[in-house]
Amino acid sequence: MTHAPTNLFDLFRSRFPSDRSKPFLTTEKGRIISYEALEDISGHMAACLRDHDVQKGDRVAVQVDKSPEALCLYLACLRIGAIFIPLNTAYRTGEIGYFLSDAEPVVFICRPEDEKAFAPIAEGLPAVRHCLTLSVDGQGSVMEALARTEKRAIETAPTNPDDLAAICYTSGTTGRSKGAMLSHKNLGSNADVISNFWGFSAEDVLIHALPIFHVHGLFVATHCVLCHGASMIFLPKFEAETVISLFDKATVLMGVPTFYTRLLQSPNLTPAHCAPIRVFISGSAPLLAETHTAFETVTGQKILERYGMSEIAMHCSNPLHGDRVPGTVGPVLPGSAVRICDDNGQPLGVNEIGVLEVKGPNVFQGYWRMPEKTKEEFREDGWFITGDIAKIDEKGYVHIVGRAKDLIISGGFNVYPKEVELLLDSLDSVVESAVIGIPHPDFGEAVVAIVIKEADSPKVTEASLQDAVKDQLARFKQPKKVIFLEELPRNSMGKVQKATMRDHYKDLFKK
Ligand code: AMP
């Protein structure tokens, strides 16, 4: 009897095309990484990591720009059973300090331009034995170390299905990020389900314009390609005209809703240009029903919206064949389950609004070194409480109607207000603050801070606060606007009324 591979890399390799000279990815500048090169470079990197004392179960934290080498590093980690930790390139010193001390990676790899700021942090932590660099164009001390590494055959590390492949840090509701632990089985089973559900084949060419420090670009997009021996056009970032100009060389686009609102602004978005694309997929944040309708009107194609999160990868999707309903994320994917519950975990009926709970082989293993937090977010019978507010209609389609935990999604990135509030509140002459998300035509939502300052503190201004958080927070978390009030609106229980403020300022960014 043959067993399905349990190491994710072996699963991918078992699907590589027989002709390994086939491009796995092509860059905008015409660089081609074939499947053969992918196996070769990632194997060489795996040997290099081994030479840097990285053992199975050790963490490798990576905060680098998008490049083919960065993807190879991810595969290299899978091959030796190390746990890959992708970090958003926007994170600054304070955040990096936290991630390194929490994850204790053996190796930390950053951009050469960040080495001066981050190396001292790594050096102060005994667990972090090596701090290396990798640049956007594939240079840096990782590549120098690679040149010194003897090329040799690397056996894939045997892994159990529940062994960890990656830890993805999510923003924390209490101000600190939580590391979602994803196993080889979580990622492998999900990759198979979604790539088949969306009809991937070796003929597909995906336009990859997403960052690779997030589940969407690193797992969802890349794994669909790897599971079918398909190809991708690997772009450093999303730029509407570039993407439209590539439609005739591609078959699939995956994006966040902002991609689609930007595409709609282009006069070049026509049915003829879009014809080669067999499916446009959207996720990571709510796609407005108006955007869905406008896209269909302009292009004749219906966007396929799906739902997931770092903790569960993909969980619901509109169908490839069948009704793609605007404003919904579709039914649950095969092999997984969904239910809507009240706050006590009691299941609710059809069309009743409550908290979305999920179960399935894709659901993560818990939060890294946070057993209490993990316990709080799982029911005793294994259902994971997503924190998203939703309903399920009579056809089984899931409608996400809100977020239980106040999460702001700006340009596709999550911002938990608490983290920004804690920082603002710690500043001189700031009494308290409330951070909310306000609709924004470009970012979906923009971060706005409502601040109460001490009387007689003329030096505390919008500019001074924005300046004070600049080095502490990733740019997407920094308030786009600061509003000063005499006091925060509160209810009789003393709870800050964020809904009232969101409503009051809802037109702040209206054009
Ligand atoms: P992340 O962990 O960064 O992937 O963010 C996960 C969160 O993004 C979910 O809990 C949802 O709140 C939100 N999200 C993802 N996809 C969708 C979608 N299609 N519609 C609405 N919200 C979504």
Quick recap of the structure?
Helices cover about 30% and strands about 25% of the residues. It has about 500 residues and is α/β, with parallel strands linked by helices.
Tell me what you see in this structure:
- The chain is of the alpha/beta class and 511 residues long.
- Among the domains are: 34-159, Rossmann fold (3-Layer(aba) Sandwich), CATH 3.40.50.980; 408-504, ANL, C-terminal domain (GMP Synthetase, Chain A, domain 3, 2-Layer Sandwich), CATH 3.30.300.30.
- Helices cover 30% and strands 24% of the residues.
- It has 16 helices and 23 strands.
- It has helices at residues 8-15, 35-51, 68-80, 93-103, 115-123, 141-148, 184-197, 215-226, 240-246, 257-264, 271-274, 289-299, 371-377, 417-425, 462-469, 498-504; strands at 23-27, 32-34, 59-63, 83-86, 107-110, 130-133, 164-170, 178-183, 205-208, 231-234, 252-255, 279-282, 304-309, 313-317, 337-341, 354-359, 384-392, 398-403, 408-410, 413-415, 430-440, 444-453, 481-484.
- The chain has an eight-stranded mixed sheet. It has a four-stranded parallel sheet with strand order 4-3-5-6, sandwiched between helices.
- A hairpin with a 7-residue loop joins strand 7 and strand 8.
- The longest helix is centred in the N-terminal third of the chain and has 17 residues, at 35-51.
- It is globular, with a radius of gyration of 23 Å.
- Bound molecules: adenosine monophosphate.
- The site of adenosine monophosphate (AMP) has 18 residues, from strand 13, strand 17 and strand 18.
